[in-house]
């Protein structure tokens, strides 16, 4: 379970998170929507300890993420993360990309790491691309590689930061399909997204972020189809 | 009447080859040492804040801006003056290596900085430590990016090594100067020396372009 408790986060004078609380039990998919600069991506970075927090607490599997005693590198193995930029390692083949972290972080043997990498690449539909260099692939394929690379670490959670925002429109579908598959398999996910259809259909709950706070959170269909908060209504009428 | 000068003969081959060998030796030393130091300094600069960089940068600026020939003379005179005269090879190697390092560090800094923050964050998010990210991601990507510039610096070091002759190192140019003063055949000798520099530089630059294509990302 991921538990975010009254988290505040500032960049200099700018307070980006103003007391955010959110509990995500295992198996749940939560989509986070909201305008740019509302703090949604920052929340993911704080959960993964890429960013520090100013106050509050974040627990991942009951481990205090921002405690001095927490080994952040170890913690991140449990938190798969995919970004807006595909970030494929350009000097490695697709298979090497996915096998790198299991091999050097989990110290698996080369064969073992390759085995897991192959399995996850097939999982996301890249079973025929093992020896291809990522720069030869489409954005959608690169993003699916990023998902497989994260999955190869066998994470308990997936944090997805606007993973379809840098994609050409015709490539968005294949990536969302992959995420839908993960959701059906019971992966716990927090998805920051601009895809309202995906948020409504795939997630269990949707949280609307506005100026550093969660303005509304509830069952996915309800928040998207029948938002109660005036701010959510305004936002959704603009993005539709 | 006997001439004061003796013409160039096959007996001079050994002498010339010594010069060739010495040019190659000092160039390799300067390129290897300069590359290693340049990599370390370049990485440190890519990772440092502004204050450290200003300090670092000004030292490097001096090394890059003062003509190599002046640095050579100043250094070898200085170590002599403080009572620790060095043989020309050692003094020349030190100065040429530091000079090379000053250029290489900028080359490598650019390479390391070309690896995006986002790429590094992605690596860290997989649980990789800082140094694993440096070793497996930043170095390989950064080094590939700078290969052409590295080759450019290395080639100019081979040519700059001719300047070490001013402090008495018997590299190719100095041996040829001595032959010229004995034989009074400057044209033949300098053409020969020029061809030699071409023969080592040209295949190297070709090899560099080949490597560049092969490792292109």
Helix-strand makeup class of chain A: alpha/beta
State the CATH superfamily name of chain A: P-loop containing nucleotide triphosphate hydrolases
Determine the CATH topology of chain B.
MetI-like fold
- Which CATH first-tier class of chain B would you pick? Mainly Alpha
Identify the CATH class of chain A: Alpha Beta
Treating each run of at least 4 consecutive H or I residues as one helix, how many helices of chain B? 8
What kind of sheet is the major sheet of chain A?
Answer: 6 strands, mixed
Number of strands of chain B: 0
- Could you name the CATH topology of chain A? Rossmann fold
CATH superfamily name of chain B? MetI-like
Beginning-to-end CA distance, first to last residue of chain A? 32 Å
- What structural class do helix, strand and pairing data of chain B support? mainly alpha
Identify the biggest protein-protein contact and residues per side: A-B, 26 and 19 residues
Q: Level of helix content of chain A?
A: 25-40%
Description of the molecule:
The complex is a heterodimer of chains A (about 240) and B (about 220). Chain A has about 240 residues and is an alpha/beta fold. Chain A has a single domain (about 1-240), classed as P-loop containing nucleotide triphosphate hydrolases (Rossmann fold, 3-Layer(aba) Sandwich). In chain A, about 40% of the residues lie in helices and about 25% in strands. Chain A contains 9 helices and 10 strands. In chain A, α3 packs across α4 (about 110-125), α4 (about 110-125) packs across α5 (about 140-150) and α5 (about 140-150) packs parallel to α6. The radius of gyration of chain A is 18 Å and the shape is globular. Chain A starts with a strand and ends with a helix. Chain B has about 220 residues and is mostly helical. Chain B contains 8 helices and no strands. In chain B, α1 (about 15-45) packs parallel to α4 (about 90-115) and α1 (about 15-45) packs antiparallel against α7 (about 170-185). The mean pLDDT of chain B is about 90. At the A-B interface, α2, β6, α3 and α5 of A face α5 and α6 of B.
